[in-house]
UniProtKB/TrEMBL annotation:
Origin: domain of life: Bacteria
Gene designation per UniProt: dnaG
Any one biological process term the GO annotation gives: DNA replication, synthesis of primer
Role description: RNA polymerase that catalyzes the synthesis of short RNA molecules used as primers for DNA polymerase during DNA replication.
Pfam family for this entry, one: DnaG_DnaB_bind
Any GO molecular function: zinc ion binding
Family per similarity comment: Belongs to the DnaG primase family.
Species assigned in the record: Streptomyces swartbergensis
Name under which the protein is recorded: DNA primase
Subunit composition and interactions: Monomer. Interacts with DnaB.
C-alpha cells in the first residue's frame, strides 16, 4: 500500500492550483462582491446562485445545500475521488511531484482506481489517434471522414482515432504501459474473451468523449466495415468514470463559449458537433447514445447560469424519430430557465450533411433561434387531429392543454395558451386560457405542498439553509435576526477571514462568550487549531487547520460558510477595518459581561442578607469589578479589552 502524501506537498498543491480556476472548469462563475465569485451549485438543483467561491481563502461554500471546503474537497466531491486521488490529479495539473510518508515515490500501479482508468483512456485516445494518422489499415476511416468534409486537422482537433481490426492490439499496448488486465476490463476498453481480455472496439472510427473537466472518460465508435455485426455506433459501457446520461460530447470544447454567450446548441451526433464547430458554431454539443435528459440539463444550467437571455437550440432530424426526440426534450423544458428552440434543416438534413451540401453559412443560419420548442411540440400534437370539426378541436385541446399547464411561469403560460387557441382555431381564447389555468391549479393541488423545504433564515436580505447538513443532528434554528447571534457570527467571520483585525484579542475570548452552540463549536475549533493569530502570517494554512480541527462535518461546514460569507457592514460603516472589528469584539465581550453581571445579581438575591459574609463579599467584589469593566468598555471601546 502507498503511504500518506507528505503534508508539505498537500499544502503545495493547495497553494499552486487556484480554486476559482478549478471550479470554473465545471460551472460559470460571476462576481459576487467582496472578492468572492458565485455560480449555480453543482451539487444540488437551484435556480439562483447560492454557491460561492473565495479565491483569496481557497474555499467554496454553498448556502443552499451546505457543501463546502477547499480545492481538494471540491475535486473529491465533483469527480467522486478519494483524498489522495484528488491531490494526485491536482498535483499532475500543477507539475508537482508528490512524496509519500511510508513508501517514497508512489508507483503508478498504487494510484487510485479512478485516476488509473482516466490514464488508460488518455493513453488509448492518443494511441487511437496515432493509428488514424499513420496506419495503412485506417485508410477506410480517413476516407469516411474526408467524404464528410473533415480533413486531418479536424481529426486532430477533435482527437478522432481508429481502432484496428485485430482482437487485442490496444489490450497488449496498455499492458505494455503497466496496466493490469483487471484495470483494462474495468475501464470498458476491453471485454472478456475466451482466452482473456479482447479489445471492445475493433475496426471503428473512435471519438473520445471527455467530461466537462477535459478528461477522456469514454469513447463513441462508428462502424466502418460490412463484416462488423455490431451496432452502427457503439459506446463505452457504464464504468466508474463514465455514465452516458451524464456526459455531453464536445462540452470540453464548447463550455467557455456557452458560458460567454449564454447559448448552447444540442445536435444529435459526433459528426454534427464537428460540423458545427468547424462552421463557427462553437457552442454545439451532443448526447452520447442516449436521449437528452435531466442530467444533461444540470450540466448546461451550470454554464448558462439561468439568466433570462439564455438560449438552448435543439437540432433534430425532420423524420419521425427526430420529432419524437424533440417531444422528449420538451418534457424536460421546464427544468431550464433558458428559452428553448428547435431548428430543423431543409430536407431534414443534419448539420453535417447541411455543411457538405450548402457550406458553413448554412449551418450557422440553421441554429439561429426561430421556433420555440413548446410551439413545435404543440404543433406535433395538433396536426394529428381534424381541426375542421368541433370534436377534433376538443380532442386536440384535451391533449395539448396539460402540456401548456406545465409551464411554471404564469405569464408565459397565459401567452402560450392564447397561441394554442389560435393553433386550434378556437375563437373563445379565454375558454382555452381558463382551461389551462384550471389544469395547472389541479396539478398543484394534487402535488400538495411537497416535502418541507430546509429551514431558512434571513440574513442581510440573503436566504440560505441552516448550516447543519440534513444528515447531522439538528439543534435549535439560528435566528439571525437576533442581534446577539448576528454579532457573534460577524466576529467569527472576522476571525476566519481577517484575523489580523481581531488578533490577539480574539484568542482571549472564551467558548462561553458565544451563546449559539454552532458558533461556540467554531470558536473551539479555532482554539484547537492554535488560535486566530497564526492566521495573520498564513491565512490559507490557518483555515485548513481550523477545518481539520472541527470535530465533525457539521462544524466543518459552518467554518467554511463563515470563511466564505461576506462580512456585513451596517449603515454608515465605510469598510472592514480595525474600528469595525473593534466594535464587534466589544459588543460580544460586553454582552458576555452583562450576562455574568445578571448571574451574579441573581446569586446575590439568592444569598440574601443571611448568607456567609465572606462569600457575600467575594460575590459583591466580583460584581463591582465587572461593572467597572463594562463601563470601561462602554467608554473606551476596544482599547479597554
Amino acid at each position: 500500500m502507498a503511504g500518506r502524501i507528505n503534508d508539505e506537498d498537500v499544502k503545495a498543491v493547495r497553494d499552486a492550483v487556484p480554486i476559482d480556476a478549478v471550479v470554473s472548469e465545471y460551472l460559470q462563475l460571476r462576481n459576487a462582491g467582496g472578492g468572492n465569485l458565485k455560480g449555480l451549485c453543482p451539487f444540488h438543483d437551484e435556480k439562483s446562485p447560492s454557491f460561492q467561491v473565495s479565491p483569496s481563502k481557497g474555499l467554496f461554500h454553498c448556502f443552499g445545500c451546505q457543501e463546502g471546503g477547499d480545492t481538494i474537497t471540491f475535486v473529491m466531491k465533483i469527480d467522486h475521488l478519494s483524498f489522495s486521488e484528488a491531490v494526485e490529479r491536482l498535483a499532475g495539473q500543477a507539475g508537482i511531484t508528490l512524496r509519500y510518508e511510508e513508501g517514497g515515490y508512489n508507483p503508478s500501479h498504487q494510484r487510485g482506481e479512478r485516476i488509473r482508468l482516466v490514464e488508460a483512456h488518455k493513453i488509448a485516445a492518443e494511441w487511437y489517434a496515432e493509428q488514424l494518422a499513420t496506419s495503412p489499415e485506417a485508410d477506410t476511416g480517413r476516407v469516411f471522414l474526408a467524404e464528410r468534409g473533415f480533413d486531418q486537422a479536424a481529426a486532430v482537433h477533435f482527437g478522432v482515432g481508429y481502432s484496428p481490426q485485430g482482437w487485442d492490439h490496444l489490450t497488449r499496448y496498455l499492458r505494455g504501459k503497466g496496466f493490469t488486465d483487471k484495470e483494462i476490463l474495468l475501464s470498458g476498453l476491453a471485454q472478456e474473451g475466451r482466452r482473456g481480455p479482447i479489445d471492445r472496439f475493433r475496426g471503428r472510427l473512435m471519438w473520445p468523449i471527455r467530461d466537462i473537466g477535459g478528461e477522456v472518460v469514454g469513447f463513441g465508435a462508428r462502424k466502418l466495415y460490412e463484416a462488423d455485426n455490431g451496432p452502427k455506433y457503439l459506446n463505452t459501457p457504464d464504468t466508474a468514470i463514465y455514465r452516458k446520461s451524464q456526459v455531453l460530447y464536445g462540452i470540453d470544447l464548447a463550455k467557455k463559449e456557452i458560458a460567454k454567450t449564454s447559448r448552447a446548441v444540442v445536435v444529435e451526433g459526433y459528426t454534427d458537433v464537428m460540423a458545427c464547430h468547424l462552421a463557427g458554431v462553437t457552442t454545439a454539443i451532443a448526447t452520447c447514445g442516449t436521449a437528452f435528459g435531466s442530467d444533461h440539463i444540470k450540466i448546461l444550467r451550470r454554464l448558462l447560469m439561468d439568466n433570462g437571455s439564455a438560449r438552448v437550440i435543439f437540432t433534430f432530424d425532420g423524420d419521425a424519430a427526430g420529432q419524437k426526440a424533440a417531444l422528449r426534450a420538451f418534457e424536460d423544458d421546464q427544468k431550464f430557465a433558458a428559452e428553448t428552440y428547435i431548428a430543423i434543416a431543409p430536407d431534414g438534413m443534419d448539420p453535417c450533411d447541411l455543411r457538405l451540401a450548402k457550406g458553413d453559412e448554412a449551418v450557422a443560419d440553421l441554429v439561429e433561434p426561430r421556433t420555440p420548442l413548446f410551439e413545435f411540440a404543440l404543433r406535433q400534437i395538433v396536426v394529428r387531429y381534424d381541426l375542421d370539426t368541433p370534436a377534433g378541436r376538443a380532442a386536440a385541446l384535451d391533449e395539448a392543454a396539460p402540456i401548456v399547464a406545465r409551464i411554471k411561469n404564469s405569464g408565459a403560460q397565459h401567452e402560450v395558451a392564447v397561441q394554442l387557441a389560435g393553433m386550434l382555431g378556437i375563437l373563445d381564447t379565454q375558454f382555452v386560457v381558463k382551461r389551462v389555468a384550471q389544469l395547472a391549479r389541479w396539478a398543484r393541488d394534487r402535488g400538495g405542498k411537497g416535502p418541507a423545504a430546509p429551514d431558512r433564515h434571513q440574513h442581510g436580505g440573503q436566504q440560505y439553509a441552516s448550516a447543519q447538513p440534513s444528515a447531522a443532528p439538528r439543534g435549535p434554528a439560528l435566528n439571525l435576526r437576533n442581534p446577539v447571534y448576528a454579532t457573534e457570527r460577524e466576529l467569527l467571520k472576522l476571525a476566519l477571514q481577517r484575523p489580523e483585525l481581531v488578533s490577539p484579542a480574539f484568542d482571549a475570548y472564551g467558548i462561553d462568550e458565544f451563546t449559539a452552540p454552532p458558533y461556540a463549536a467554531v470558536r473551539q475549533a479555532i482554539m484547537d487549531a492554535g488560535g486566530a493569530e497564526p492566521g495573520v502570517a498564513d491565512p490559507q494554512d490557518y483555515l485548513v487547520k481550523v477545518r481539520e480541527a472541527a470535530p465533525d462535518d457539521a462544524v466543518r461546514a459552518m467554518v467554511t460558510e463563515l470563511a466564505v460569507e461576506a462580512i456585513l457592514l451596517h449603515k454608515g460603516v465605510k469598510g472592514v477595518d480595525e474600528t469595525y472589528a473593534g466594535a464587534q469584539l466589544v459588543t460580544v465581550r460586553r454582552r458576555a459581561v452583562e450576562r455574568r453581571i445578571r448571574d451574579i445579581q441573581s446569586q446575590l438575591t439568592r444569598l440574601g442578607s443571611h448568607g456567609d459574609p465572606a462569600q457575600l463579599a467575594a460575590v459583591q467584589n466580583e460584581l463591582w469589578v465587572l461593572q467597572q469593566y463594562d463601563q470601561a468598555l462602554r467608554e473606551h471601546g476596544a482599547a479597554a479589552l
